[in-house]
Amino acid sequence: MSTAQGARARARIEVTAAIKDEARRQLAAEGAAKLSLRAVARELGMVSSALYRYFPSRDDLLTALIIDAYDSLGEEAESAHAEVAAAGPRERWITVCVAARRWALAHPHEYALIYGSPVPGYTAPQETVPAASRVGVLLIGVVRDAYGGKGVARTPLPAEMKTEAQRMSAELAPDLPPEVIVALVASWAQLYGLIGFELFGQFNRVVEDREPFFRHAVGRLAHDVGLVYPEQAATAGGPPSP
Amino acid sequence: MSTAQGARARARIEVTAAIKDEARRQLAAEGAAKLSLRAVARELGMVSSALYRYFPSRDDLLTALIIDAYDSLGEEAESAHAEVAAAGPRERWITVCVAARRWALAHPHEYALIYGSPVPGYTAPQETVPAASRVGVLLIGVVRDAYGGKGVARTPLPAEMKTEAQRMSAELAPDLPPEVIVALVASWAQLYGLIGFELFGQFNRVVEDREPFFRHAVGRLAHDVGLVYPEQAATAGGPPSP
DNA sequence: GTCTATAACGAGATAGAC
DNA sequence: GTCTATCTCGTTATAGAC
């Protein structure tokens, strides 16, 4: 009886994976807006109503794809980071950013799903938040370690940002000073600005040799969040140099 | 006969505008991927074949909407800039960025059309380039003026970026040093990272008081491209402060 | 209980004959 | 330019196999 349940569970996992794989294929071909349960079922040789045993609605399938995409990106970033865990914070920061770009270039349609235009009529549920946070958490960790090791340069905040900065700090990383959290969140958004512009064609005929450009840009972001070169930690605030 | 032709031309302009208005409405409701000439025609009480007198294909209608969106954004940024044309480069930079954000918040679906995920099966023709360049040209102008006025802090480039930086400089602004152009292009992409994250919901539950956050972040971008406060122009490279 | 299949709904798109 | 017959879609109800 336990073997029967095991087989059943295994089959269920396999079918679920097949549905998501086919859905991802359609995502690439037609975009998230045109993702259709019926087309997925047809391609798999199933009948559309059978899909409802696996995903209660089209939106639930979309949510699963979104969480998978965030997790796939998060894993890529985390394993890249693990390989340089012993390095300095600036190198770790750049490694995480480069891994995020690499993942995005390898999975452009899934990138568009999570960081591109919202899908009309769909709003992501709270379940997506943990997976969506993984890269951000990683970057916070890098800065936290640097801050413990005094490698962080603090830059002052304008008066009208003080309360919001304190709220953000309390919410995201109470052990880090507000001005660092503000720079971190801005850099986080700016990182995806760089990736999105490359992926969505805005850099066509503008930036040709993209990898060094990207590395240099995220190196400047590292500087913005206070990750300076070791020898500059004392005289923090100076421009980065190779 | 010239009056008849005038009336004809006027009617054509009006119908063209009505088609684009209706198409924009559908853009907001269903997204660019599902934009359908038939649906636009139905809503206007026309027959679908009549639309082809105004737009030879769905892609041409999309192109027109994209150019309109870029132009609308460009106009907003340019007129905002004109009002502070006499101010310092840092204030002019921030004004342009704030205007871009204001336009994006007022026209989220058109923003998604031009800076969001690519529309499956559509590739933008070269005609869109001039309109798409307007904000970038504006930002280059601000930095150019500052550079002439010595308000620009130069930061060194890594060796592997030198040739690409020189190519970009020659292409975009031969009168500006390569390291400034690189910082400018990166900041340009990062600006839309900030706007996109706010617009597409990535800042939900992360950044609440967004305007001061945005102003502060683009102030840091200004600093990245070398637009420091007048009194700091000599000791360039220091952190920005209000 | 778990799954798949049939059939149907209401809504919308589409192709072609007229 | 109009009409109609035939597609698509998400979703549900129901029945039967395992």
Write the layout of secondary structure elements.
Two copies of one chain form a homodimer.
Chain A: H1 2-30, H2 37-44, H3 58-83, H4 89-106, H5 108-115, H6 128-148, H7 162-172, H8 178-199, H9 210-224
Helix pairs in contact in A: 1-2, 3-4, 3-5, 3-6, 4-5, 4-6, 4-9, 6-8, 7-8, 8-9
The first copy, chain A, binds a DNA duplex (18 and 18 nucleotides) through helix 1 and helix 2.
In sequence order, what are the helices and strands of chain A, one letter per element?
Answer: HHHHHHHHH
Number of strands of chain A: 0
Largest interface: A-B, 65 and 64 residues
What is the highest CATH level, the class of the largest domain in chain A?
A: Mainly Alpha
Please indicate the count of domains of chain A. Answer: 2
In DSSP terms (H or I, runs of 4 or more residues), the helix count of chain A works out at 9
CATH homologous superfamily title of the largest domain in chain A: Tetracycline Repressor, domain 2
Oligomer: homodimer
CATH topology of the largest domain in chain A: Tetracycline Repressor, domain 2
Gross CATH architecture of the largest domain in chain A: Orthogonal Bundle
Overall residue-averaged pLDDT value of chain A = 91
Q: How much helix, percentage-wise, in residues of chain A?
A: 55-70%
How many strands, which pairing sense, and closed or not: the largest β-sheet of chain A? none
Structural class call of chain A reads: mainly alpha
- From the N-terminal CA to the C-terminal CA of chain A, the straight-line distance is 64 Å
**In angstroms, what is the radius of gyration of chain A?**
21 Å
Low-confidence stretches of chain A: 233-242
Which percent range describes the beta-strand content of chain A?
under 5%
